[in-house]
Design a protein that fits this description.
homotetramer, 447 residues, mainly alpha, two-stranded antiparallel sheet, 20 helices
Chain lengths: 447, 447, 447, 447
């Protein structure tokens, strides 16, 4: 598959090949072959004719560009493909090419095949990214880092707990995608309008064999204009994009020059003009790929309202959007995996950043300590005042707290010092790491 | 809940109340009450204090507009709510209000409660619409109607098979939503940055009791910036919107003056200027509501990439979008149910429309009949020619076929007449109806 | 440019080539050449070096796939392109390749060039479609047709007035796009962070010459992270997509088997299985292409919030979306033009459809005639009742009206007959046609 | 207007009231009044009747909730409103209420009025934000700050140049919105299907007077299903959202604890649990509001493809989306203005951050200085190597450069020191500030 100018950035990993036009052509031919074999197994056509058809379904034998061009005549590439395949088969078997099916049967079933094949590297990369996140969570289970809310340091947590949050999102996304792959991806076979009329009373039988041939689910009824399968797939891909984009976003923030708590080692990251730049290029590209997904999800939901037995436009609009969505989510997963597998973590810098605010990050803890005596809101307001004084004066919070007479009855300087030590205020961070790792092991064993 | 100017059209059914601002306030107070009770059950605060807090959590006691206004100070309505609640509780118990939690814990868990409560009428209306579709499928299992592709008559099917397709989509959407409701909707409790530090070593215990109190799932780790739950919910709602919009769209098409195969009886439909108009107003409004969903799904996927331990904007952007999405999908379901429950079907007109083309709708069947003798493509081209002549001359297809000498060896006039009879060319339409109805019964029993 | 499998349907017209990866490569090289020449004209580098660089900027000399692949290292194809170009130039001139610029300068300016070049066929096809609509409006200025609201026949209009509405939308879209092309498309040149520091005090001078070289607008300041230009372009393209999709949608509806008021002659439209089908394939494909645009517009608006002096992901996410948007809108325009240029109109069928309802389409007119005597609402309700009786009984509206005694004082049978004649109730339809045609002539002269 | 629970965050400034349901009701009544007056001025109805109608058009006299509820019958609130208005007018004048118009005329023209009124505070807040950005640009024209690309420090710029970039975006957005307001917002008047048939041959005359009455543009033809006006408005609003979100995003990044170059003084920013937090709450809320816009833009572009003379759903879907879009963009502008007007800038911290990297930020400059002697690529690679050594060893770049023997012939230690001084490497930053300020003055004078 020839590469494009933006592929290095926006089409990462093996998924690129699985959604390429050639992969679609292959899938369409696989569908025609399976259809012929299913009819043979149902006794509708001779087995040797089916095998002749299947043998002709070699992608290399077809002129993809010509088929694409001729699609303009009918509005679908299936018409020129069937014509070319019929010619390639020749002889008596040619009469059975595409028998019983309509263009949409081929396109929709091919879309399911493409999706299933693209989900393979995609799920592998998601799992790889999750494994890397799990590795970080385990290794940094207790490494203190500033927790940040609204981009402000808020209270301590551990880098492991942060990575555990990434892991939970990635596992949830992978789990849902795996579920969609096994339960939602199904063959489509309905003939012209969904009755399989040209197969007489053998339609349902052929449908079953056809599904078995392709190892896709068998739907209760044709789903030509019931697009819930496409939309469920799109939704699950959108969730995966977000789950991949979130850690990537955090990496770009943690790698900021002024934060410098992580950096990517060995992912490239040079600049055309700035020799000193060490950009977290994998994380940046993961964000870029993830950002492209939501609109494509919306697009594939917007085309669900399809008229009667085949839509006048909404169906055709799906093809490219589905390919692009698989590609961009697969690429986001591949880039994230690369980023996390190459992440260098700097615990010393994490600790130094934690100490930047002179104890203020632990202000909540002082509030909690004072609450039994003062009530939560009065305690909150008192500590808020001490923080304000610390910020305006530049003095450590320990000092401004100690200067408040009301406090002396409740806390002495040593108690204040203890309360302001971040490493003793990590709550359940490490337990949460363990829970996420347990869940991840369960998830990995299940798939 | 006071109604808005567009509510009659765009906020249909009970879902409107479940996503109203008052419902959010109620949910937020339910969260505060459950939090207090959970801490009492964990032995962290006295039971009577928890009950005092819970007793104060009455929505009517709070000034919603003032809380909304004061939210501007901190960027969240939780801050003013907690202040007001603390005042309302008074005494020693006041010290325990909101203890251990952060604003996002309250908002996120409230969002889950709102979603669960809104899903109740939504799923009821989806089920009602599905039941109505099932009723139509059963009643018109064998009623012939033109199957239409690209808005052109293509081949016969039955109205029952059409309704079975609607049913399959509605059932798939409902099934997924029910799954999300039970497995994805979970409490959020993490404190300032997800460590539950202010609960010391009791965080995980409180989390478990808190989830049990609210009958929501317990997450392995806090999900403050893992938005896969929100996005999965959004995706499932988007699927439901599409599943509801599709039949509604078909109803508007079937009700066209020139088609007139169905009409809504008793749903309103008057016009301000046109006394003769009988608009399928329920279906039109269902389409309108369904059309609003995809962008909101995209919006809730786009806000998944949230920074660190709380996003600087992306989190806040979710609130209204989630409410709107629940509302518009619930409204689409309610309108569709109303449309399908009031649908009058005109089988005679369906048959008359089928006959409009003088047999051409069965052209595919003639191709199939000729294929064994001629091969599929030559047969296709021969029949295509006869169709062209019929269209340009206005003569019935039977005649233009009979005029082709090559055909005489294969088909006589009687055979042609039989092939062109739509009622004998319905394939597996009725079997598919039965399969969809079976699946529907299974689905209904499962929920 | 090798064609893709879906290009026949989704990438129509010349726009396909203008947004292909090769066109991007060409534009990037044009930018490097212009940059070198601008520096020469500013006296910063020798003219012969600039010409040596410009001479090396031949797209065929570069390995597009390799550049695309190597882009993964730095996150942009500019880095490997500059490396390859520097090698190709060789000698002393090589030192001046890309001098002063950063990757984003090249990508953003190339994007503007690609947009301007793609807008050429796009605007030509939009204008062609508008001309065709104008032709239909003029030819059918007075041809009666049923006006349809909510897909129900409502009152008579003319097909010319309908086409005039299409025309107005197409002209508005083209006018805005032309405005964007001349006022919004601008060079980007800022160097590493927008200061042009490596050009010392000659930055602004070089910027001006650079813009003149490429015949793009000169921005007041670098716009690296001010994405209003991209978003304005995207918005204007989205408007054009909607303006093209609307007439295409109407064509598919008017071409329905049961309506049959128009058909496409000679655009293809065959089916793989249904020999009788004459699908309005150009209109269907125009709808498909138009449907893909809104999500891409949303995507390009969503990536506007770009960090500091270059975004960590949002910028990269633009590239493919912009290409796709130009392509799909250009394709929608090309398909619509083809549809309208091949549209066969059937005035007799329009008239027959108008008569389907036995005069009820003119009910509003009876209301208007009765209003002076009865008041608007009572008149409306009376006529509504007569319509109801006509619908339920199948009798013509003239009869059910005549049977209402209250009416006799105001209208006799002849008056009723006159009121129910559609050809005398076309209001300002023809004047509106003239106004739209006048405006179109003005628009065409302006461009 | 009663406030909602999220209004403090998501519905900021006066725009909230201008898009409230009551504002829509007011606009609808303004339309009915203008319609009556226009007919009187055209001599179609008595002036006193028109004035009686206009006098009855007082919003307080109508039950908004009841009208909203009854809208369900017809699918539009205009039908119950016209009924209530007709009753309120009474007497002979009642017969002329709503004469000649259809529901969509009222809704669409009301939408234009609502938009125009909402644009007033919106443009005022955009201009206020732009003025604040201009103030920052002027005050910090030469204040050095690290320019950051991909969130990494890249090269020096000035804070003034950064603010000038914000300013340029805000001015571009405001300019386009002002253009839309004056040229695109137009009355809609077409009657049932766009012919104004019930106004006989006076339609065009009434249209002109009607437009003059409301001070909206007069369209050449009715635009009932030409939604380019709505979509152009939506696009311009989307651009404004992005232009407002960009500076807000930068503020949240610059305000990070570890960066601390700016902070909001006096915008609130407290936390429910963290007493020390000083969140840039205005910027965060501006980001939140801006983030909601793109999906709504996409939604309003997606509903452009409207059927025939009134869409069966797509039209109704616009109402809430348009209101929400105006509201969220107006809120983003109001919040951004508040943020920028309260921004405290810390030039010392900016300088300290610039010095964090020991001169590496000026590496590009060394490359430029070496390029004449070595060629651009070799120079780039040499400096890149020195940067790598500085990063791994922690030594200043000046030292690692000095240690490279190849350099001695070209640069001595003093020359290196001069090259690495950020304040002498600001290029055209200040000139660009001046250009942006000039353009802003021009923009402000024009409006």
């Amino acid at each position: 598959v020839a590469g494009g100018l933006f592929d290095g950035v926006l089409a990462r990993g093996r998924v690129r090949e699985e959604v390429a036009d050639r992969a679609w052509l292959t899938a369409m031919l696989d569908v025609e072959a399976a259809l012929a074999r299913a009819q043979a197994r149902a006794g509708l056509i001779p087995t040797e004719d089916a095998e002749a058809i299947a043998a002709a379904c070699r992608p290399d034998a077809f002129d993809l560009a010509a088929i694409g061009r001729d699609a303009a005549q009918s509005g679908t590439p299936v018409v020129p493909l069937v014509r070319a395949l019929t010619e390639a088969v020749g002889g008596a078997a040619a009469a059975h090419v595409h028998a019983g099916a309509t263009s949409q049967d081929v396109m929709d079933t091919a879309a399911m095949l493409v999706a299933r094949r693209a989900l393979e590297p995609l799920l592998e990369d998601l799992a790889g990214a999750a494994d890397a996140a799990a590795g970080l969570a385990a290794a940094h289970r207790g490494t203190p880092i500033a927790g940040r809310t609204l981009l402000q340091q808020a209270a301590p947590t551990t880098f492991g707990a942060k990575a555990a949050g990434w892991l939970a999102g990635l596992d949830a996304a992978a789990s849902r995608l795996a579920q969609v792959r096994s339960a939602v991806l199904a063959v489509q076979l309905g003939g012209a309008v969904g009755t399989l009329a040209s197969l007489q009373d053998r339609g349902v039988e052929v449908l079953g064999v056809f599904a078995a041939e392709l190892a896709l689910a068998e739907p209760a009824v044709p789903w030509h204009t019931d697009r819930t399968r496409i939309a469920e797939l799109a939704g699950a891909l959108g969730v995966a994009a977000g789950a991949a984009g979130k850690p990537a976003r955090d990496v770009t923030l943690l790698a900021q020059t002024e934060v410098a708590e992580v950096r990517e080692e060995g992912t490239g990251g040079g600049s055309s003009t700035l020799p000193q730049k060490r950009n977290p290029v994998a994380a940046v590209c993961a964000v870029a790929c993830a950002l492209r997904a939501p609109a494509l999800v919306g697009a594939l939901h917007a085309t669900m309202v399809q008229e009667h037995e085949r839509a006048a436009g909404a169906w055709h609009a799906e093809w490219r959007s589905l390919s692009d969505l698989l590609s961009t989510v697969g690429s986001a997963a591949a880039w994230l995996r690369e980023s996390l597998e190459h992440l260098e973590v700097d615990p010393a810098r994490m600790r130094a950043n934690l100490d930047l605010t002179g104890g203020m990050l632990l202000a909540e803890r002082v509030t909690t300590a004072l609450t039994p005596a003062l009530g939560r809101l009065p305690a909150h307001e008192l500590v808020e005042r001490a923080c304000g004084e610390a910020q305006s004066s530049g003095r450590p919070l320990a000092d401004t707290l100690a200067a408040i007479p009301d406090l002396h009855a409740h806390l002495d300087a040593e108690a204040i010092g203890g309360l302001l030590d971040p490493t003793s205020y990590l709550g359940s961070a490490e337990v949460f790491v363990d829970r996420a790792l347990d869940a991840h092991r369960g998830e990995r064993n299940a798939t």
